[in-house]
């Protein structure tokens, strides 16, 4: 009987995942199966996220990653730093008023839209106003 008790105590430190026996130092929370692969977690599941069929490690939270145009972009602060116009991702320093789409092209505006006018299928730059 003591041999059986010893064997039982030994098997408590093993777990079977993906047809393999893994040794657990503490608990099952140290291992997670994502994308048919066994990942070791230092703390919790919030450290890993699956986007675009790839496992990404997150230092803090999910707000650090965003998926636009089938590409994963890293955001320093918030989504206001990126905008999608004309199937292209543009980085905005401040707000969306800095970009305008005219004649299938993206134009950068220093101040407002009063600086550009479209005449005869051409974009003209106006020094002042109409």
Question: What does it look like?
Answer:
- With 130 residues, the chain is mainly β.
- The protein has one domain.
- 8% of the residues lie in helices and 43% in strands.
- The protein has one helix at 2-11, and strands at 14-17, 20-23, 31-34, 37-40, 48-51, 54-57, 65-68, 71-74, 82-85, 88-91, 99-102, 105-108, 116-119, 122-125.
- The chain has a two-stranded antiparallel sheet with strand order 1-2. Strands 3-4 form a two-stranded antiparallel sheet. A two-stranded antiparallel sheet has the order 5-6.
- The chain is rod-shaped.
- The model is unreliable at 1-12, 24-30, 42-47, 58-64, 75-81, 92-98 and 110-114 (pLDDT under 50).
Q: How do the strands and helices of this protein lay out in sequence?
A:
Elements lengths: L1 H10 L2 E4 L2 E4 L7 E4 L2 E4 L7 E4 L2 E4 L7 E4 L2 E4 L7 E4 L2 E4 L7 E4 L2 E4 L7 E4 L2 E4 L5
Antiparallel strand pairs: 1-2, 3-4, 5-6, 7-8, 9-10, 11-12, 13-14
């Amino acid at each position: 009987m003591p041999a059986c008790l010893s064997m039982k105590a030994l098997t408590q430190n093993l777990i079977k995942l993906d047809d393999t026996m893994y040794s657990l130092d503490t608990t099952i929370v140290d291992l997670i199966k994502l994308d048919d692969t066994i990942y070791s977690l230092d703390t919790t599941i919030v450290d890993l996220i699956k986007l675009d069929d790839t496992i990404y490690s997150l230092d803090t939270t999910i707000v650090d990653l965003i998926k636009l145009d089938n590409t994963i972009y890293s955001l320093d602060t918030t989504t206001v730093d990126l905008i999608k116009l004309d199937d292209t991702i543009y980085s905005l320093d401040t707000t969306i008023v800095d970009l305008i789409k005219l004649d299938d092209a993206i134009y950068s505006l220093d101040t407002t839209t009063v600086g550009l006018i479209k005449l005869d299928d051409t974009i003209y730059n106006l020094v002042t106003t109409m």
